[in-house]
């Protein structure tokens, strides 16, 4: 198999020889506009991880059926469930949907920001925007759930999934409501958003909002802002702007390294966007009926899908990714400069549904161990006069 080298220009990084509490982040990639889908792999298989009643389409099918496209009026990326095909009742029924995985993988020292105008919702609908450790059996590489809820819930949930030994510290400074502290349980270490309009129809009616995730040696931190409350550092930024977190305030979820060794439990993480239907969380009868829905979950999948799935779509203005490069002193304690030489971003080959590694276990159930993608990631220190600068080189398998 041929090897391709990808260099990330300008990324000569200072390792964390000293601990700081706020980092300046340099932009790495923006997923937006007409190029949004060019840096993602389509799953192209059934949902064999959370066992929803969907078939995740390949890129050509997604394009031809209008399940992934760029809205010409806004420039936003749209990812949706099929709402036009008549599905007859049968022993097994699947509706077409989408799952895409980023070609790049983001290590500790990364920052992820997503601006969303609409999150899929409705009875049987289970959307997720999450991160998954690369090329390793789930959950050995860790999983980070950034946006995830089901059916007609009105608030988002955040979670980490790991092997035993990682916890949400009881003294974490966060605004969210802690549901579970053990990250190795089926639902993971779970935090519920307390700000209004973080999911469902309320989110859409409020004009959406922004979610951010910081991966740091000091912890993993997640924020949400409604459209009217987005901090100036984000609302006034463009794709070339560096990012400073000093006006972000207290995160919704704060997973401190005092209770979870981030470097130990989290490998470089690929981004994943998907929408499944029913499955091992949204489709569980007791959960389905307690989250604003009646009858049986599968009844939604059968039929034309209209109007049931008219709101089952993502509308994404952009996803921006960053790496910590320089630091400033702050007193919040929410972040620090990276202390590892594994600051890397990688490009994966097309996802293989039969390979090892899986995630998206949901907030109520664990999932089987299958793959999201195959990725090779290496990072080598380059010598400098002080030995403090790191060179970054990415090797990518092209299958």
From TrEMBL:
Keywords: Signal
Leader peptide range in chain numbering: 1-23
Keyword Transmembrane helix: no
InterPro entries linked to this entry: Beta-glucanase-like, ConA-like_dom_sf, Glycosyl_Hydrlase_16
SUPFAM superfamilies: Concanavalin A-like lectins/glucanases (SSF49899)
Signal in keyword set: yes
Location of the GH16 domain: 18-290
Region (Disordered): 330-367
Gene3D superfamilies referenced in this protein's UniProt entry, alphabetically: 2.60.120.200
PANTHER family for the chain: GLYCOSIDASE C21B10.07-RELATED (PTHR10963:SF24), GLYCOSYL HYDROLASE-RELATED (PTHR10963)
Protein name, UniProt field: Concanavalin A-like lectin/glucanase domain-containing protein
């Amino acid at each position: 198999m041929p090897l391709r080298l990808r260099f990330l220009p300008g990324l000569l990084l200072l390792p964390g020889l000293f601990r700081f509490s706020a980092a300046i982040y340099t932009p790495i990639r923006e997923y937006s506009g007409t190029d949004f889908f060019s840096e993602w792999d389509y799953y192209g298989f059934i949902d064999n991880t959370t066992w929803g009643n969907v078939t995740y389409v390949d890129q050509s099918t997604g394009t031809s059926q209008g399940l992934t496209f760029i809205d010409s009026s806004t420039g936003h990326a749209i990812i949706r469930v099929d709402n036009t095909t008549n599905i007859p009742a049968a022993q097994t029924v699947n509706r077409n949907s989408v799952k895409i995985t980023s070609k790049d993988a983001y290590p500790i020292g990364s920052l992820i920001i997503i601006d969303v105008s609409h999150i899929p919702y409705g009875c049987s609908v289970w959307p997720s925007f999450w991160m998954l450790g690369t090329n390793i059996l789930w959950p050995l590489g860790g999983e980070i759930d950034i946006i995830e809820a089901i059916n007609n819930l009105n608030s988002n949930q955040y979670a980490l999934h790991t092997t035993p030994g990682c916890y949400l510290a009881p003294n974490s400074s966060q605004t969210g409501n802690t549901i579970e502290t053990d990250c190795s349980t089926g639902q993971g270490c779970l935090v519920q958003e307390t700000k209004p309009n973080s999911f469902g129809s309320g989110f859409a009616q409020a004009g959406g909002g922004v979610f951010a995730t910081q991966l740091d040696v000091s912890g993993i931190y997640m924020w949400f802002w409604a459209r009217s409350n987005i901090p100036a550092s984000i609302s006034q930024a463009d794709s070339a702007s560096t990012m400073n977190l000093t006006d972000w305030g207290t995160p919704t979820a704060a997973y401190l390294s005092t209770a979870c060794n981030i470097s130990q439990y989290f490998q470089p993480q690929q981004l994943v966007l998907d929408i499944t239907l029913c499955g091992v969380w949204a489709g569980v009868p007791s959960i389905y009926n307690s989250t604003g829905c009646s009858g049986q979950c599968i009844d939604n999948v059968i039929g034309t899908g209209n109007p049931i799935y008219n709101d089952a779509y993502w509308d994404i203005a952009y996803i921006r990714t960053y790496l910590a490069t320089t630091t400033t002193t702050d007193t919040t304690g929410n972040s620090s400069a990276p202390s590892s030489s594994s600051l890397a971003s990688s490009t994966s080959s097309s996802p293989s549904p039969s390979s090892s590694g899986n995630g998206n276990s949901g907030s109520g159930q664990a999932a089987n161990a299958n793959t999201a993608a195959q990725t090779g990631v290496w990072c080598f220190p380059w010598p400098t006069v002080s030995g403090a600068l790191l060179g970054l080189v990415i090797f990518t398998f092209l299958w």
